[in-house]
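Lab meeting minutes (informal)
Scribe: AK
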Amino acid sequence: MGSQSDWSTMKAAADTLDQFGAAHEVKIISAHRTPARLSKFAKTAHENGFGVIIAGAGGAAHLPGMIAAHTQLPVLGVPVESAALKGMDSLLSIVQMPAGVPVGTLAIGVAGAKNAALLAVQILALSDADLGQKIIAWRQSQTDNVAEAPE
């Protein structure tokens, strides 16, 4: 995530990954204030065992795109809600990437963070049968928890 203030949103991603037992790390990496940290992390993420990167940022929200520019891994961008424009600035910064530097962009806020984690689990499940079974069971529980009629 881009700053400590993003944790209130991005915690939903970490919690969801925990729910599936998916190994992950939580880091603060600012595209603007820690560019060397960003570059080093992104360039070495694959060799350090990462399979996908979830990057949340608000405002100018350049973190996901800058990470994508430095790695071959899939990058999922989560726009964090901002005070000034309710996250629309973040969304547009993340979704409008130039051709050749893709970032999978999720919804603004906590829903986007949770969905980024679910999408990351689905990506990782392509080569991890255990995660695949967990996502299938989770989806079935979602279905089972929908009432057929109001109470």
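Next up, CB showed the second protein from the same session:
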Amino acid sequence: MFGLFGKKEKPVPVTDLVWMTDTGKKKGLLNILQKDMTVVLVAWFEDTAREMETFLQQEGIEYSILSQRQLRSSQTTGREVVFLEHYPLYKKEQETFKSLNAAKITVLSSLEEPLLKQFGGERISLLMRNMGGMEEEAISHNMVTLSIQRAQQKLEKKITVDQSGISAAEWFRRNVG
């Protein structure tokens, strides 16, 4: 009747690729595009879209990056969608993922981004360096994805009104302080 005994809705499967640095993430994006120029690139924040389009142009690649607001399922149905960052709030991100009907969703992150910095990204980066990790190597594991989801859910508990921003840093200034 009220969903008290209903099953919890399963999250949309996501592949997380996390690099130590933003530079490593950009190199990772180049590798993805070298393998498949048909992926749909999406940014949650305007600054990310601009920064990545500029980077790709400098590398001689003309590629349109969509903002999440521009996204329509007709553009993504049956295709691989690569998000250039996570949205800080889990529910909003999952709602978007569900609406896409994508064949695969991948999210690129770096430990230097505001979301991961909030939850110890700098310490993890130092640990990875000490263990011989390379800037170009991405971490991808279900435990990483679950950790990011928990971080997003933890933020959700603190946020009463989601105030948008043109960058992740601005979003955190407006919403977290």
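CB comment: The mean pLDDT is 90.
No objections, moving on.
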